[in-house]
Structures are given as structure tokens and as C-alpha cells.
Design brief:
By secondary structure, the protein is α/β, with parallel strands linked by helices. The chain is built from five helices and five strands, in the order αββαβαβααβ. It has a domain of about 110 residues: 2-Layer Sandwich (Nucleotidyltransferase, domain 5), CATH 3.30.420.
Length: about 180
Amino acid sequence: MRRQVDLAAGPDLDLVPLLNIVVCLVPLVLLGTTLIKVGIIETEAPRFCQGCSINPSDSPPLGLKIHLGQSGMVVAAQGEDRLRDTPVHLATEDFAGLYRLLDEAKARHPDETLVQVSADPGMPYRALVRVMDVTRNRLSGSVTDATDLASADRLLDDRGRPLLLFPDVVFATAP
């Protein structure tokens, strides 16, 4: 018996070479994914709590807030602090001025660790990361300008661990 071949359907495709290429490419793609560097910024989600206190002391929390906008930075506080009555406006790139303000606030509130950071849409990512860097570490010496800020070393405690300024950076929604 002879088989009848339907010539309208066309010849069978030979998929073996195509499958061989795919089998060779899959390990290369998997190897490439291990070489991708992913940057992570440690931060916490905002804490919303009614009637409970984040800090164990009896003093009200400082509620320090930093907002990055197109016209500059605004530093304000909720607690009993001079920043509560008069928020301070700084230039967008005045990170040395921001550090001085935060260092003064830390001197008045040594137990406070939380700062809320918000930014306008379209702000450069590097500016937001720079604000987070400035808020976290205490620096040695006096910081008067950007070169002092860039060249200052982190202060260390007796055990060689860095002394922290406001290590708990929380992202907040823009006002």
C-alpha cells in the first residue's frame, strides 16, 4: 500500500537544529543572569500606629522630615524642636547644611533615630540617595561645605562600629 502525500500541506519542518540552538542558548542566558548587579537601599516601610509610641522615652518623638523638591530641601520636625516652628529651606545640593541641621537635632534628641524622607516626582535618584547617606552617619570634624563633607571620616565608637546619626530612614509620600 502506498501512502498518499498531500502536496498542499508542504514538507515537514526539521526543528532539530532550532532546538539544538535553544538548548545551547539557555545555559548562556542563565549564566548571564548571575552577572547582573542589583543595588539595594536598606530602608523601612512607614510605621502607622495610633496610640502607641515608637520611642520608649516619655518625650514626644521628634518627627524629623526632609522633603526634596525642585526648589530645594525643606527640613521640619513635629516634636518640641526649633524645626517645628520654622522649617528650614536649603538649596537642593546643600548637603553640608543638611548635615549641620541634622547634627544639631541629634545633639538635642540623642535617642531619636527615625527620619522621613520624601521627594517630588522627577527628582534625580542620586540626590535622594545622597540625602539618605547624609542622614545616616556621624562624621568627624566640622562640616562647613561640600569638600568637608566629602573628606570627613565616619566617627567610630570604642568597638570600631560607626556612630549613627539617624539610621532609620523611612520613605514617606510627598506633601
